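no rush on this but wanted to send it before i forget. theres a chain ive been looking at and ive put its sequence and its fold in token form underneath. i want to understand how the tokens follow from the sequence so walk me through it. thanks a lot i owe you, the record is right below:
>
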Amino acid sequence: MKIVWNSFHGRFSDNPRALWERVADRPGLEHVWLADQEHLAAFPDGVTTVDIDSPAATEALESADLLVANTHTEVEWTKPAGTTYVQTWHGTPLKRIHRDVLWAPEGRLDRLDHDIAKWDLLLSPNAASTPRLRGAFGFTGEVLESGYPRNDLLSLPESREAGARVRASLGVPDGAKVVLYTPTWRDDEAFAEGRPEVPLALDVDRFAAALGPEHVLLVRAHNMVTGRSRIAAVPHVHDVSYHPDVRDLYCAADVMVTDYSSTMFDYAITGRPIVHFAYDLERFQDSVRGFYFDLVPEAPGPIVRTTGELVDVIGDLERVEKEHAAQYAAFRERYTSLEDGRATDRVLERLGLS
């Protein structure tokens, strides 16, 4: 059996990586990863890759028995009759997706519909997401409510070791509190003509100066705008946008700062505090992308608008956790009930690879 893997248009990460790690050494399986050349260094030695933007990617897809992808496979290819296409997707949607978005570049959604038409199986992380995924994609095929394989690590003892490795690789001092900042992308910024710089809303200099060496900030740009934000080179701040997999960064972090990213749903599995730096809340929900539900009453942590407010909250997390305990518990019950460390088992069982 030949399996082709694709994560975020050519990265070694996410649900495809977690599934691959379980079957990589199985006899009788041939594995090929579609790879973006800018992220090629993240792939382990010995892994077969083909350039996702080359004719070799088309050849690999058209000879595959199974394709596992976590987003649209934006490669021109004709799906053979015997190929199974598993779409894992990559997050619980707060932001509207595909046909539900408020705006998209002309022709983009029509083009992506050609990929959706090839899907045979779609994974859903929870019951709340299933109707949203079906509706947005117009998908009438099989949906497996499995939880996300990439999140299994967060429920396992090995998560501590993974976090320790990340902290050591970055030189994080013992006892320092690691803050992981994971902003989502804005469609109008990502698709702006000429691909201009995407300004970082967080004032990194002020954040680092106010909180000092006891806090280390990890900035993780969204994959749609990686490399387009200028992140100040100041002590105790690390740009981890090119780190292979965000799941390992979850393990290393003591607190997450995000806005409307689906990373909040993953990180809630850890039970650690989440803060929403929602500086453009009304603009985002009313004109940029739109939401499936009102974030304010459901948010598992406080919503702040400025770097100063964020600094104050990060400096008083014990109080924050107590004040938002009930909301956090309800959020976890609704969105993480399937995240029990066995999502990979459920998916592999469905595919006959268990």
User: Anything to note?
Assistant: DSSP finds 15 helices and 13 strands in the chain. The chain has two domains: 2-151+340-350, 153-335.
